[in-house]
Specification:
Blueprint (H helix, E strand, L loop, with lengths): L2 E5 L3 H13 L3 E5 L15 E5 L7 H8 L7 E5 L4 H9 L4 E4 L4 H18 L3 E4 L2 E4 L4 E4 L2 E2 L4 H12 L7 H9 L8 H15 L6 E4 L3 E4 L1
Parallel strand pairs: 1-2, 1-3, 3-4, 4-5
Antiparallel strand pairs: 6-7, 7-8, 8-9, 10-11
Helix pairs in contact: 5-7, 6-7
Organism: Streptococcus macacae NCTC 11558
GO molecular function, one term: transcription cis-regulatory region binding
GO biological process, one term: regulation of DNA-templated transcription
Length: 219
């Protein structure tokens, strides 16, 4: 089911948007401040509606901060209608804008249009902070830099990342990688993990944690 994030410091607008979108069977999460949003969960959203004028962290700054973490459409909600303001918003990584006050039909039309385009163009991906998995191409990029992983190394990373926080033993990872019928040793998993870590260290990251006596997890 489609999930939408809405951030606006006006409670009445949040309520209006949430009620409108829920009638369309969307899952909707609302926040009055950008700092309340858990950045690690942004990848779950299919579209983000973001007010520009907010206290503490404004919409422009938040959009610029998260744009490399998500590839879903970001639509600004703004009372500003001057061309210069709109250009600034789009240059920060937004896909579109909706000027306040807006009608419900206009809001829905814009959202439906962007979601339709995403369904046509979107490549299946998984984004965890600044690490992006292209699930179709079987590639990992960090801040737009592609990691040179073998097929087995990629599949180990994908398995761990898809179940972030869950601990897997070497036996479990070996079975997931090669299947129960494959003859070999789970010790190969440790060597793959070693190589993966070396490649992530080249981009100053270490996402795989060893849980001593048990196995590994993506942290």
């Amino acid at each position: 089911m489609t999930r939408i994030l809405v951030i606006d410091d006006e409670e009445d607008i949040l309520t209006l948007i949430k009620n409108t979108l829920q009638l369309q069977n969307y899952l909707v999460d609302t926040f009055m401040q950008a700092k309340q949003v858990d950045r690690s969960k942004l990848a779950r959203y299919d579209l983000i509606l973001l007010d520009i004028m907010m206290p503490d962290v404004d919409g422009l700054s938040f959009c610029q901060e998260i744009r490399h973490l998500v590839d879903c459409p970001i639509l600004f909600l703004t009372a500003k209608s001057q061309e210069a303001d709109i250009v600034t918003g789009l240059s920060y990584g937004a896909d579109d804008y909706i000027c306040k006050p807006f009608g419900v039909e206009e809001l829905l039309a814009r959202i439906h249009a962007h979601l339709r385009r995403e369904r046509r163009e979107h490549h299946a991906s998984l984004v965890l902070e600044n690490i992006r998995f292209d699930l179709s191409a079987k590639q990992i990029t960090v801040n737009e830099k592609k990691l040179d992983l073998t097929k087995s190394e990629y599949e180990l990373c994908e398995q761990l990342a898809k179940h972030r926080g869950q601990v897997f033993s070497k036996d479990q990872l070996y079975d997931d990688l090669y299947g129960y019928e494959e003859r070999g040793t789970p010790a190969a998993v440790a060597e793959h993990i070693k190589n993966i870590r070396a490649k992530f260290r080249n981009v100053n990251l270490d996402p795989i944690k060893t849980v001593w006596g048990i196995g590994y997890k993506w942290q």
